[in-house]
Design a protein that fits this description.
With about 450 residues, the chain is an alpha+beta fold. It has 12 helices and 13 strands.
Length: about 450
């Protein structure tokens, strides 16, 4: 269950990322800030998987065929327990200590813990370096002067501009552009936004979509900052040349929450294109199309079916209580029943007998066959809540070797379940149960049979 939910979260992250790309395109055409798009994408990539099972419009994935539908699934781990059939007892539930879900949860917690420790270490290193840097005034702007770190903005409660010593060697006009860029970061509190984003990454470090969104957010922050610097009156060509000059010398020092001037050479081309982009005819139409695509992808991410949605059975049962209550119910229903190798009882969620099906062996050792019309093929798998098997002499029912109790979910209507409306549905779980019954009722097997 956890593995399928993690895959669901990754797919949601991809859909949200595509929606953010379309929204970014629309905003760039309209000359609007784009940093909020990627911040919202990160938030939605975390929020949608967390709340999707509780959304009123959400629906679940269709059930998978196989034996796993016969067992009740633990809501904490989502792992189908081992099925154990004992003499004179109902279905027993034995939890596996370790499974795929447990391993994934351990890896998840370990990776989040390691990433949190690395972030705390980086913050500690930053505070140590902060005390080493000199506080000076550069062209009337208070800065921290470092040997090689920067240009960048650091901090959480108090934001400081960090300038490397080589900035003082720049021409006055170029130095003013660099300072202006960093002052825009301070005004928009960009380091705080990056720190919040890292907390989201720590929550889901295994989701590659979040890491890609973080990179796009960094680029968007710089693109918005460049646009504000140019809008303040800076010459585009001169500002671009300063970016080209600084890209090889800018250094974050390996610290994650910096808002740096030109930290990634790979993003420089996108920043230059954003500065020099020209709007041609019909740009409003293209922006509108991009906005519509972004909206459709966002809605698709919200409505995508989730394996943990309420459509799947995820409740637990007490094996002992279930065994005793099933035995008592079976005895009450089959008092005076004619001999049969196997009896299949269909009951409602409230415990009312709905239908009875009889299976007999044509010859010793042969597979039991149905007597009368087939009922199982008319039962939709979605309507089955549980399947329990009772066998052995402790049933105290002479002439009956085994009983299969099929309980329907609450709200399942017998008229639909047995009226033939779902004849095209494959009853995988019930068929798997009946495939096990010959082994269960065979006298040559020992007192317990474990799969």
């Amino acid at each position: 269950m956890i593995a399928s939910w993690m895959l669901y979260a990754v797919v949601v992250g991809v859909l949200v990322s595509l929606a953010a790309l379309a929204a970014e395109k629309a905003l760039l055409l309209a000359r609007r800030p784009v940093r909020g798009v990627w911040a919202a994408a990160l938030f939605l990539s975390l929020l949608i998987p967390a709340v999707s099972p509780r959304l009123p419009w959400h629906f679940s994935l269709p059930p998978l065929p196989g034996l796993s539908r016969l067992a009740t699934v633990n809501p904490l781990t989502g792992i189908a327990p081992t099925i154990r059939l004992r003499e004179g007892a109902a279905l027993q539930v034995v939890e596996r200590r370790w499974g795929v879900d447990e391993i994934l949860l351990v890896l998840w917690g370990t990776s989040s813990g390691v990433l949190a420790l690395l972030l705390m270490y980086a913050v500690g290193v930053l505070q140590g370096r902060r005390r080493e840097w000199r506080r000076e005034s550069l062209d009337g702007v208070p800065v921290l002067l470092s040997r090689d770190i920067g240009p960048a903005v650091i901090g959480w409660r108090r934001l400081d501009i960090v300038m490397p010593e080589w900035v003082r060697d720049l021409e006055a006009e170029a130095r003013a552009l660099v300072l202006r860029h960093e002052m825009e970061h301070v005004a928009r509190r960009d380091p705080r936004l990056l720190m919040r984003t890292w907390l989201g990454i720590i929550a889901m470090p295994w989701n590659p979509a979040l890491w890609w969104q973080l990179r796009r957010l960094r680029r968007a922050i710089e693109v918005d900052c460049d646009a504000r610097v140019v809008a303040s009156g800076a010459d585009v060509s001169r500002y671009g040349s300063v970016l080209l000059e600084a890209v090889g010398r800018c250094n974050r020092g390996g610290l994650p929450a910096f808002a740096a001037f030109a930290e990634r050479s790979a993003d420089l081309e996108a920043r230059i294109k954003a500065l020099t982009a020209q709007r041609f005819g019909f740009w409003r139409g293209r922006a509108l199309v991009s906005a519509v695509v972004a909206s459709v992808l966002t809605v698709a991410a919200c409505l995508m079916p989730d394996s943990m949605a309420p459509g799947l059975s995820r409740h637990t049962v007490d094996p002992a209580a279930s065994s005793q209550s099933t035995l008592e119910w079976v005895r009450a229903q089959l008092v005076g029943h004619p001999p049969a190798d196997i009896v299949v009882l269909y009951r409602s969620h409230e415990g009312r007998l709905l239908k009875t099906e009889v299976l007999r062996r044509p010859s010793p050792g042969a597979r039991p066959g149905r007597v009368g019309p087939s009922i199982m093929a008319d039962v939709p798998p979605n309507d089955v809540e549980s399947v329990e098997v009772v066998r052995g002499p402790k049933l105290e029912l002479p002439g009956i070797d085994g009983v299969v109790v099929v309980t329907l979910k609450a709200g399942a209507r017998p008229a639909q379940s047995f009226g033939g409306a779902y004849r095209r549905e494959r009853a995988w779980a019930l068929q798997a149960t009946l495939d096990l019954v010959p082994k269960i009722v065979a006298a040559r097997y020992p007192n317990s049979y474990t799969r």
